[in-house]
Structures are given as structure tokens and as C-alpha cells.
Amino acid sequence: MKLETLITDAWQRKALWLWLLLPISGLYGLLTAMRRKAYQLGWLASYLAPVPVMVIGNITVGGSGKTPLIISLVHYLQQRGIKVGVISRGYGGDSTQMPTLVTKDSLPSAVGDEPCLIVNTTGVAMAVCPNREQAITTLLEAHEDIQLIIADDGLQHYALQRDIEWIVVDAARGFGNRQLLPVGYLREPLSRLKDSTVIYHKKIDNPVLSDSLQATNELTMHLQPSPLKRLLAHELKENGTDSVSHPAAPKAGSTVHGVSGIGYPQRFFDTLRTLGFKVIQHPYPDHYDFSLAELLQYTEHPIVVTSKDAVKIKALWRQKRQQVASSEEAKSSHDWDELVTRLWVLPVSAELSAACYQTLEQQLKALGINTAPIDNVTHNVPIH
Q1: Up-side HSE of residue 70: CA atoms within 13 Å toward CB?
Q2: Domain-located, residue 99
Q3: Sign of the alpha-carbon torsion through 265, 266, 269, 270
Q4: Which of 129, 287, 291, 350 is the most exposed place for a label (fewest CB within 10 A)?
Q5: Which of 102-111, 198-207, 338-347 has the highest mean pLDDT?
Q6: Residues 18, 185: contact at Cβ < 8 Å?
Q7: Number of structural domains found in the chain
Q8: So what's the pLDDT on residue 172?
Q9: Statement to judge: residues 186 and 280 lie in one domain
Q10: Based on the domain organization, do 76 and 203 belong to the same domain?
Q11: Distance separating alpha carbons of residues 168 and 165, to the nearest angstrom
């Protein structure tokens, strides 16, 4: 078992042995506080972008629903006439090739899986680089009309000044033992929440009945699942194999392999169960790069993956289709063609309460950014 998986499992079980690491947590907390204070006092230099910056992040390790939230915000801002751009560190990509712009043809191995998902879902202008200043410079050089930049997961990147901070809190998961790393999964103490706009990601027991949460006056969001979609439907059509008879989508009551390489896979598994599926769980580390051999081992039942994992599996499929060398590769290609008939993705969208959008409008207005009034704004778009 990998160390990351071991620690994550210990956090979920609130294992007692974690408390042996308390001195390390104390040192981590001290260094974190000193670093933040140094930026606040100007002892460490920070970058002020020429356009307003909105940071979306969390104070916990693991997924909180941040990426679906960013996608919904981008769609909302685009529909309200705001020229929005997105930056990210590009985790999982090739940092030697950064800063770089993200396009719909970009590969997860080059720019990261989440940037690929964001751009393919929204078409937003986006740049990636561990150095956020370089990412912003690259983005603005290519898109001079951008009015607002959303920084994906830059909450602890204090070298970047920000005008708006939204912290996503997974209300169902909570804060565990409320301790800093590595005893707990807090990146920063809970007091950090007082300085930002906090969006509480709430779990709904019935995904179909979600209107009441969306209408709340609280700053909340939830993930709304859509019907399963064939993971490679578009690619199979382009390849001319969509006419082959494929099994229908699995129905409620059937057994599926739930394969997930996200920060908090249990949420994904729970959602599948809420939809009525019997789930065989296969959790992998966050941002995991799947191989054909790993996917082929899950037989007998359909395989359901997350949208973030889907972008990497699609890239793997394209790579396999381009291999035409040895007979061994030809057999591998045949195995892959059989596998894709069992691959499905669970699209989800982040639905925000009305108060979230009202707060956003007020924050933008304070920055001199006025949104264009339009009718029938769609607040959520599924992530395919």
C-alpha cells in the first residue's frame, strides 16, 4: 500500500497512531503561520495581477468539489458577459513545458487532468504553471480582454495576491480530527475560514430532489449527478466503431466497478449507491495515471469512472489506437476495444444556492465588474 493511500485510510478511520505524528503537525503549523505572516507583512514578495483574481481552494487535503464549482462559475460568468480566464498549477502535467496554454487538444500528461476537464467542459481560456505569475502573464498575453481570473487551488499560494477568496468545505466529510497535517488532513487551521467566503458542499440524500438546496439563503453547493454516459462515445463514432452493438447503460440494482482516482473517492462511491448501484470499490490515489492492464482486470461488470479520470482514460485510448507495431500491441488493442464497451462515466454538476450567486455579484460589483443581465441563466452544466 502506498504511503498516500495508507495515510488517507488512517484519516478516514481516525487511527490512533496518527497522534504519534503530533510534533510534526506542530512544526508544520508554525512554519505555515510564519510563511503567511511574512507575506502579509511584505517580507516575502507577492504578485499583484493587472486584473482581479478570484481564488478557489480548500483548507483540507483531498477533494471537496472544487473543480465542479469552478466549471459552474465559469459557465455562469460566461453567460453574464464576463471575459473570464482560469489558471492552475497544472498538477500531474509536465512542469518543464510550463507556462503553457491549455487547449481542447492538450493531454493530461502535459497540463494535468483537471485543466483538461475544465477547458473541455467550458472552452475557457486557461494557462498552467506552478508559478502563478507566469501563468497569468501567459494567459493575458494570449487574451488581453480578460476581466477576471479564477485561480484553481491557489489558496495557500500566498505569492499571488487575490481580490476574492472562496473556500470550499465538504460538510459531509467535515474536518476529521481537526488537526493539521500529518495528524489530520487540514492544510491550515480552522481559523482560516474567518478570512474568506466559505461555500459548504452539502450531500443530498436524494439527487432528484435538489431544488430546496439550490433555493437556500445559505452559501451552499451540492453535486448533481446525471445519467451514466458511455465514456468513449464520441471517440468510437470518430473511429467508425459506434455501429458495433454495445451493451446498454447499467441500471439501478446492477453491480458496477467504481474506479476512482480523485481526492476523496468515497463521495463518488456513495453517489453511485445513492443512484441504486451495487458498487465494487476501487479507490486509487488522486490524479492517478491508469494503465490498460489495471482497467482490464475489472471484468464481469460495467466500469464507472469520474469525469476527471475520464480525461486520462480517453488520452490512453487515443494512445492505444495509434499503436500499430507488434502483434502484442495488436492484441492489446483488441482487449482495449472490448474494454471500452464496459466503460461509463458519471457526469456531475455543481449546483449553487442563490446566495452564492448573489454574493459573487456583490463581490464583482465591488471590483468594478458589472455583469450583463440575461434571462434564464443556467447555473449548472454536467461535467462529461
Answers
A1: 34
A2: no
A3: negative
A4: 291
A5: 102-111
A6: no
A7: 2
A8: 86
A9: no
A10: yes
A11: 10
Are residues 167 and 58 part of one domain? yes
The neighbouring-strand residues paired with 151 are 55, 87
How many C-beta atoms surround the C-beta of residue 209 within 10 A? 9
User: 3-state class of 261 per DSSP?
Assistant: coil
Give the Cβ contact number of residue 20 at 10 Å.
Answer: 10
DSSP classification of residue 249: P
Which residue bears the cell 460538510?
Answer: 171
Q: Which domain holds residue 171?
A: 3-82+147-218+349-366
N- to C-terminal Cα distance for the chain?
31
Angle between helices 307-322 and 327-339 (to 10 degrees): 150
3-state secondary structure of 235: helix
**How far, CA to CA in Å, does 21 sit from each of 16, 183, 186, 285?**
10, 6, 14, 22
Mean pLDDT across the stretch 307-330? 78
Calculate the CA 3 to chain-centre distance: 22
pLDDT digits (tens, 9 = 90+) for 256-286: 999 999 988 999 999 999 999 999 999 998 9
Residues 301 and 160 in one domain: no
* Prediction pTM value: 0.91
- Mean pLDDT for 365-380 is 75
Burial class (CB in 10 A: 0-12, 13-18, 19+), 191: exposed
Contact 111, 102 (CB under 8 A): yes
Distance (Å, rounded) from C-alpha 64 to C-alpha 309? 16
